[in-house]
């Protein structure tokens, strides 16, 4: 395991523990809120397991908190933080703007490789996403249908429903703005 992977695993564990402590939630309560098993949550907190991107979104959504908060703190607003998830080698994510409670959004630059398909569980009620394709073609599933986006195309949708991102081309790069209510 690389130092970056170890740091990410540690930060995710610490952030999950901090949320549980602040809200006085047991592992059972968090499991009910997120749909993630108590055993898996315990492994994450003990740094025995790294959640996939999809599982981390599920946890963040169930706890009604931002995704980027699990990825770490960025020391200055103009710095970017790239995150690679060992269990998701066909997806790379860079936090362009971490969650800011004053404006209630976060922004990511995401690349999918090898026609990767990334499933996302429903986020909290009212959360919206805006996607802007930079390179390649993206198939985006929301409102029970597929939408194809090419470079410079955008889509905005309520993310409080299951949704899917799929690289239609070998590689696609897009930016994703997640706006919380």
Automatic annotation (TrEMBL):
Coiled coil: none annotated. Keywords: DNA-binding, Transcription, Transcription regulation. The keyword Transcription applies. Residues 16-70 form the HTH cro/C1-type domain. PANTHER family: HTH-TYPE TRANSCRIPTIONAL REGULATOR, HTH-TYPE TRANSCRIPTIONAL REGULATOR SUTR. This is XRE family transcriptional regulator.
